Structure formats: C-alpha cells, structure tokens
Amino acid sequence: MKNIFISILVSLGFFFIASFFFVTQHAILIALIALLVILWTNEALPIGVVSLLPIILFPAFELIDVKTATANYSNPTIFLFMGGFMIAIATQKIDLHKYISNKLLTIFPKTPRGMIFSLAFTSALLSSVLSNSTTALLLIPIAIFLTEDLKFKARLALSIAYGCSIGGIITPIGTPPNLILLGFMQQHSLEPIAFIQWIFLTAPLALVMLIIIPLLLSVGLSDVKLDNSVEHSEVLQKDQKRLLYILLGLVVVLLVNSKIEPYYSGLGLNETAILLSFGLLMFVPKIGFIEWEDAKKIPYEIIFLFGAGFTIATAFSKTGLASEIANYMLSLTNLPVIVLILMIATLITFTTEITSNTALISIALPIIYSLGQVANIDMTLILMVATICASYAFMLPIATPPNAIAMSSGAVKVKEMAKFGFVINILAILSVTIISLVYWQFFI
C-alpha cells in the first residue's frame, strides 16, 4: 500500500506542475501517465493489472472513450507477439533452446562480458534486416538458458533487447520509423537517403552504442560463471530437427518478405500474419509440438502492457497534447544548433519511453520539419536525429517490443531495466548529438 500511496502522491505532483504549462485535460493525462510509469517501476501492483488501468482511468477522466481504449489491446502488433510466444514455448518444450545455447557456448568467448558482447552484436545484426520483435523472440529464450545466475540472466536478456533497438537503426528497413522518415522526405521533396548511404551514416553510431552497452551491462559480473553442466544431446532429436527447419523457414520467409526500396519490393506479406501463422503451426498434429494447455504459458501481462502503450499513444493524439508540446518546441528555434539538437534528441528519446515510436515519429516529423525551417538548419540532419532517437528507448518495457519481450522472460525486473536504461538513454542522446554534428552534417 505504501508504494501505491507514493505513486498517487507523485502523480498529483506532476498534475500540479503540468497545470502551469498545459490545460487541465493535458495535465490530467500527464499525471495519469506518471502514475502508470511509477506503478510499473515500483511494482506496487502486478504489471498486468497496471497495464489494464488505462481502460478505466482514461475514460473516467474523459480523455478517450472505453471503445477507443479497448481497441488498442487488439492492435495487430499484439498478435505478432502471440505468434512469437507460441514458437518460443514450442522451442522450450522440446529443449531445442538447450541444444542451441550449448552450441553458442562453443562459439562465443566463455566469459560473461564476451557473451554479452556477442549477443548484443548478434541481435543488432539480425534486427537490421528482421523485425526487432522477431529477433528478440527468437534469441531471448535461448540466451537466458546459458546460466542459472539470475543477475546474469537479466543482463543477457537486456543485451539482446538493447541490441535489437540499436540494430534497427542500421538499415532503412530495420524499424518502421526509418521508413516513415523516408516517406516523409519524399512527400516534402527532400533528397532521399539511399540504402547504402543510410548504413554508412548509422554504422558508426551503432558501433559506439554496441561498445558502450555491453561494457555497462557487464559491470559486476566478474564472479559469474557460465553454466556448462547442463546435460544435452550432441545430436538433434527428430522433433528438434523438424522445429529447427521450421525456424529456418521462418527466417527465410521474413528475409524474402523484407523491402529494400527502391531495389526490391518484397513479397508484400503482412509480418504479423507470418509470425501468427508459424505460431499456430505449432499446434498442428504431426507438424507442431504444443497443445492448447501450453498456451497458458503465454505472458499475457506483456500483451496487456503493449495495449497500455498503444492506449497512451492514442490519448496523446486524441487530446491534442502532442500538438501542444509542438507549439512549445517552436519557441526553441533561436537556440544554438547544438543545444537545439540536444533538446530534440532528449525530448524524443524520453517521450518514446511511454508511447509507440511509430506513432511518435509520425507526430514529431512535421513538427521537426517546421522547426528546421524556422531555425534554418540542415533539414535532413534534424529529421534524422529525431528518427534515430525514436528507436533509442531503453528504460521501460512499454518503450519497445524487445524491452517487453525481455520482461516476459521473467529474468528482468522493471527497476533493473529503468536503472540501466536511464544511463544508456543519456549516453545515446550524447552519442547521437555528437555524431550528427561531427559526422552526419558532412555526409548528408
């Protein structure tokens, strides 16, 4: 009860402060978001319970109606997760994750830091061409089996989650905000960024982050030992071989389906439908591996968590709070370029912690474009900064799909994610600002 009382008290403080800058409706929304974030962080209530509160609170304060709120809990992205969770459950049921994880031990350096570096780089490279959700769903169940040490499990899960977010910025197809930026630039007759040019611009930033994050996550793990004592077969069993072929088939379909504009348009299949189809395939007799009873292992609290995130994003748009924040930003145009970029990077990075990066960047790009026109700075540069920062959210499970999937593993606590994530957010903001001014402005 103490943590619940503290959460309410702090949210009232947010309301009081916000009332000086925003209308009452917007101040209420800010206070309610603060309440949800604090309850998630201090774990005063179960995550699933907190995640369902927007259905009650947002209509109660007349921010959005119940129908609009509940619709967000059936967002297509949620069914992508369900398909991925079904595959993960099948992988664990037949112990394929044990076989793969023990094989990883023979490839990666046999130290905690070496494992964290290897998993961060692997997840980043995969998520540069695959969905970061898919990459996290495939890797995290395998990675946390590498040790019985709870602290090390959490660090491994976070290294994959963070690696996925970093990898998403490497290519234009790595994450939806990148494609939204390219479409926006085309609409406004800005010179497009070619596929190879994008990689050339983002690779140094990704490399910097892929060095910083594993170093930070490996702090305090010097006394941790990898679990090499797990019994496993050196030969794949029949069921394991079948599932491995299915997983390879899934990866091939996802790769072939990926767009590489303007060179290749992909198959045009919906990625949610692909993941859900392969997930449901796990139930088919003589092909699949699980029964309906196994579906109880799906972490539904994480599904509710994402429903809450989508509901917050909807409330931002419906109440006009996003536009109000935009108006305040227009007053920043007289600031020096370095301060302006730093403030944009900070605002986008921390805002994307509580709302969908796709929704945020769709709202933010027109605002940033107006800012760039008034401030008379390189338009592509400032749009690029905003887009990259929309994918760099490391603090909260609702911020990105990989963060939520790391939470669903049971290895990561919200407090731990917030602690590491806050530091990494600051480092990411500084890295993006420095690289944009020192490197991007000469090649864009």
UniProtKB/TrEMBL annotation:
The keyword Transport applies. GO terms for biological process: carboxylic acid transmembrane transport. It is found in: Membrane. GO terms for cellular component: plasma membrane. This is Anion transporter. The keyword Transmembrane applies. The chain crosses the membrane at residues 12-38, 44-64, 76-94, 114-144, 156-175, 195-221, 242-260, 272-290, 302-322, 328-350, 357-375, 381-399, 420-442. The lineage of its organism: Bacteria, Pseudomonadati, Campylobacterota, Epsilonproteobacteria, Campylobacterales. NCBIfam families: dass. Keywords: Membrane, Transmembrane, Transmembrane helix, Transport. Residues 38-387 form the Citrate transporter-like domain. Coiled coil: none annotated. GO terms for molecular function: organic anion transmembrane transporter activity. It is a multi-pass membrane protein.
